[in-house]
């Protein structure tokens, strides 16, 4: 009798059924959604409601200065165009990569504006003008903000449900609208 041990799975992996999920999406089909900071907007490409990670294209207007915020998880970003910096002597420009490490608190500046591809491993906590905690922006909040803008039809969504097309997230809380 043959058992389904590691050797079996290494030689007979089968093919994962993909259901209604598309493997590739065109970000041009996703509308821009206003983000939490004035002068910024995002396109939600991937949202993992289980782990809290999410992937966005973030667009920032010229002259923007982000309020101080704390990265609870790492953020990896690739600058598609424009640029931003935390310090004048260490500027990020088109084609450059950065990893904003978990625990970093900073206030980036973008004199010319920027568009970046960002993979976020956890929530971002924003602070108000008096140093008070203003918001914690996690994957679920980003999903609700984008859903309220009808901008999640092409988002790769991961949740405890095995098939996101079953409509588990068709209801956006009234507070998010």
Keywords:
eight-stranded mixed sheet; Jelly Rolls; elongated; four-stranded antiparallel sheet; 2 helices
Q: Quick recap of the structure?
A:
The protein has 177 residues and is mainly beta.
What can you see in these coordinates?
β2 (40-48) and β3 (54-60) form a beta hairpin. The strands form three sheets. Strands 1, 2, 3, 6, 7, 8, 11 and 14 form an eight-stranded mixed sheet that branches. This protein has a four-stranded antiparallel sheet with strand order 9-5-12-13. The chain has two helices and 14 strands; from the N terminus they run αβββββββββββββαβ. It is elongated and about 60 Å long. With 177 residues, the protein is mainly β. The mean pLDDT is 87. The protein is 9% helix and 38% strand. It has a domain at 44-164: Jelly Rolls, CATH 2.60.120.
Number of helices: 2
Estimated radius of gyration: 19 Å
Give the CATH topology of the domain at 44-164: Jelly Rolls
CATH class descriptor name of the domain at 44-164: Mainly Beta
Query: What coarse outline follows from CA principal-axis ratios?
Result: elongated
The tally of beta strands, per DSSP, is 14
User: Could you say what the CATH architecture of the domain at 44-164 is?
Assistant: Sandwich
Structural class: mainly beta
Distance between the termini: 58 Å
**Approximately how much beta-strand content do the residues carry?**
35-45%
The largest β sheet comes out as: 8 strands, mixed
In CATH terms, the superfamily of the domain at 44-164 is Jelly Rolls
Helix-strand pattern: HEEEEEEEEEEEEEHE
Low-confidence stretches: none
């Amino acid at each position: 009798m043959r058992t389904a041990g590691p050797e079996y799975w290494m030689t007979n992996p089968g093919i994962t059924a993909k259901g209604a999920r598309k493997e590739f999406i065109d970000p041009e089909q996703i509308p821009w959604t206003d983000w939490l900071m004035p002068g910024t907007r995002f396109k939600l490409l991937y949202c993992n409601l289980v782990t809290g990670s999410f992937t966005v294209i973030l667009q920032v207007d010229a002259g923007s200065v982000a309020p101080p915020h704390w990265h609870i998880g790492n953020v990896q970003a690739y600058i598609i165009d424009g640029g931003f910096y935390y310090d004048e002597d260490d500027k990020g420009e088109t084609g450059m990569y950065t990893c904003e490490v978990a625990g970093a608190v900073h206030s980036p500046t973008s004199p010319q504006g920027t568009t970046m591809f960002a993979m976020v491993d956890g929530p971002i906590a924003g602070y108000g003008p008096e140093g008070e905690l203003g918001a914690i922006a996690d994957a679920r909040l980003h999903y609700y903000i984008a859903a309220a803008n009808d901008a999640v039809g092409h988002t790769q969504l991961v949740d405890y449900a095995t098939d996101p097309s079953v409509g588990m997230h068709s209801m956006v809380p009234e507070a998010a609208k």
